[in-house]
Amino acid sequence: MPSGLNKHRFSPISVLWTFCICVGLTALNISGAPVYHQNFQNDADGSVPEDFLVLGGDYSIQSGALVLPGTPLNKFGAVFGPDNEGDLEISARIRSEKRGRLSPSFGIGLYGLGGYALNASNSKNALELFRGRKAVSQVSFNWTPSTWTHMKLAVSSTSDSTWSIRGKAWSEQSHEPDHWQIEHQSKQAPTQGKASIWGQPYSDRPIEFDDITIDRPKTFTALPSLPFELGLQTWTLRNLDFDQVVAFAKEHGITKLQVIGNHIDPHADWEIIKAKKAVLDANGLQAYTFGVAGTSTDHAYNRRLFEFAKYMGIKLIVVEPRDFAIFDSLEALVKEFDIKIAIHNHGLTSLYGNPLVVRNIIQHRDARIGVCLDVGWITASGFDAAKVFQEYEGRVYDIHLKDKTVQIADNRLVGISAGIGEGDANISGLIEVLKTTGFKGVLAIETDSPLFARQPSEFVTKAKAYYESLLTK
Q: What is the pLDDT of residues 328-346, one digit of tens each?
């Protein structure tokens, strides 16, 4: 390789555009072999592989890895090989360190400078997908410094001429995630170009790259257009009686109901409960959960709640105990009945308004004890719903699809009920996260507004339309 190519520096603006280290694909005529693999074991220390055209940065082989020095601070890269073609998947492992609060960024990509890149933006605790210079999707990601981080990016075409771009990243100390963590759909075919790795050493520490592999992805089946179900929290219909609720649900095409005590009381006479269940069954409706359920330090009182759930076919109960000690009783019943509970959150003045409190509770309890994420209240408490969902790490079992506009009054946050999609809640971001994580629960439409509750038909119709618009993006 001519020496001048390795030492070439781009201007900062140019480097922001060419943020990749592009890796060419050398096709191997061996059945089952990867399209390309490089582990840097056959290159001498201090050198750069002959097929790398370095665009910036003093990359060199050090102890069997390709190393980008910690200085100077910029985005550096190199290109080589033929253009990428067809469905492809690139993986690599990357390692660096923190310095104080400073963390590096690094990533991998496909299809050249205008193609797709998966970026670990560790200073933001984020995993990002880029098309060219534009970020098209972002999810939360907690990087482990000084440990190899595995990254994988796949680009696949589907039968309806849609391209699916998916990514995941995980520490070598853990297992590869079963599901893709981040995903983007596009009708635009990828540009021609080369695969990529890149780095930006914000922390003034070297970034190491190793085990770069490019292959054809495994058979991919796109997620269904409706990966999770839309339901209705009947608190929205609190001004209606049970029979009116049934008629309303049928009119609006909603079959999943999260029932409140106004409509079916779990402590009512069994004959009343049986009669109401028969009505639901006859109309093709399901009380998929109950809540927010009252709980007590009286174990017998809580047991009746679980007996009711078992009879109704409910697999999840939404709770908000007034005393942390109640969880001992609830956990025993969760184990006995094999029925989950989900902790609901109100504002910061409630016991469970801060997600840190809820996470501390569930991490010490049976895995069937999880979270009912109220999107409106989590927003009114100053949190981002999409980020909080991810931080619960698979323990969100139910979602209240609610929106609020956040204002500051008397030096505190105040949430004012809004139409779904009209407030400050990051609902679109949450839906994107739910798509990529394969969330299996229900999003129950709900409002706290007395005005909307008096006009529930208009509220629910608009909520459904907004929800469906997000799924078709």
A: 999 999 999 999 999 999 8
DSSP, residue by residue, 244-265: HHHHHHHHTT--EEEE-TTT--
Three-class SS of residue 165? strand
Mapped to the 3 state alphabet, what secondary structure does 154-190 carry? EEEECCCCCEEEEEEEEECCCCCCCCCCEEEEECCCC
pLDDT score, position 440: 86
CB 216 within 8 A of CB 95: no
How far apart, in whole angstroms, are the C-alpha atoms of residue 284 and residue 246? 10
Is residue 221 scored above 70 in pLDDT? no
What's phi and psi for 162, nearest 5 deg?
-105, 140
Among 247, 307, 240, CA closest to 280: 247
What are the structural domains of the chain? Answer: 3-215 (2.60.120.200), 229-471 (3.20.20.150)
Whole-number Å distance between alpha carbons of 373 and 434: 13
% pLDDT > 90, the chain: 58
Nearest to 57 by CA among 108, 6, 96: 6
- CA nearest 422: which of 445, 442, 402, 408? 402
CB atoms within 10 A of CB 412: 11
Looking at the predicted structure, is the pLDDT value of residue 167 above 70?
yes
State the Cα–Cα distance between residues 439 and 431, nearest whole angstrom: 10
